[in-house]
Amino acid sequence: MDFLELVKESENIGAAVGESRAKIQNFEEKYTKFVSLCAGTSGHSRVARQIILKEAETTSDFPVLFGTVLERTIRAKYKLIVPEYSSYVKVGTQNDFRLAWDMALYGNRGLLPVVKERGDYKTGTALSDGKFVIGQQKYGRRFGLSWETIINDDLGAFSDLADDLILSSKNTRSNYVTKLYAGTSGPLAFSAATGPQNVQTGLFSASGTHPIDGTTFSNYQTSYPLTASNLAAVITALKSQKDYDGNPIQFSRFKVVVPVGLEFRLMQILSNNLLIATTLTSSASNTVQGTTSENILAKYPIDPITNPWLDIVSGATYGPFSWYVFGAPVDGDAIRFNGLRGHEAPEVCQKMSDKVSLGGAPISPLEGDFDSDSIEWRIRDIFGGATTDPRYAFGCQSTT
Questions:
Q1: Which H/E stretch holds residue 217?
Q2: Element (H, E) at 92
Q3: Are strands 335-340 and 374-387 parallel, antiparallel or unpaired?
Q4: What is the pLDDT of residues 80-132, one digit of tens each?
Q5: Distance CA 119, CA 114 (A)
Q6: Can you give the residue ranges of every domain in the chain?
Q7: E strands, 276-322, where?
């Protein structure tokens, strides 16, 4: 039986591999050499590898060694969903770890009054400002392996370790942003800024005092399930708002953020083929009153976004059913997320080995440190965020 025939017959030898390998002396050593030979990393030339493999086919150990190669696999990792919060959160940077003050001016956008001939120009409303602050925090983790583990990693199980750490950072950021606007009861209740740091919490209120200009705002509904009519009402409420000077607020797009449980319902609501129900105004005359079957909501500039972290942050009662609408960050931001300038992306590094060869040359980090042959990686991520202008968001709490 040659090598290719043995590959075809691998299913037949799989059952006996477990019992047979225990009978082979120095099995792990032979197996490691065999894998290196098959992978072309043993240092032998191509011709030499072919000769050695051909000779190995005649040995009694070969089927067991080859069966072990076929048997040992790495289970595929879960693909974690990272929500695209940048589509409804304004992302920026700040220079250092000190609290960054972000200011907004208001009071100078009112309508211009008429100026009569030779008349004086009147002074407008006094220009005022509002502030909020964003602080930076450092996040990270270290991960270590032994030198022996790396040597035994013939399947490359740890080859994507850096990618895993980067994904961990992305999930940390997504969880952080979600908790800026969602809590255990759905939309996070607004709490006005207090103290010298002037830090507000939450974003939603049925009758709150605007943190920047001091006017009253309303961007919250309770017992408000996601329906076509409720979504239309929320969009209408957002577009009907006025700024401090009484001007309408412009929205170019709306970002509807839902948990996994409402994803299908939102797709139905935004479908072009949604049938709008009609009713009979009089059962006697069969007079029909209603709307066209065309879905008008599909014509609105709406982007559906699914955030699976909502199910986790808000729990089993409110998480699967509470939903949110944000304006596009280019129009104005309800949430601000900043990275540290020059360190916007997470940074993964590996600890250098403190060993040197007898000739004084440095040794690869994969050879481990001097004391214990341990090999370590570390990830560092720096970011911070804050809620800003509640006029660009609307939260709907629901349990259905």
A1: strand 216-217
A2: strand 90-94
A3: antiparallel
A4: 666 789 899 999 999 988 888 776 666 666 777 788 888 887 776 666 666 77
A5: 9
A6: 3-71, 131-396
A7: 279-282, 287-289, 302-306
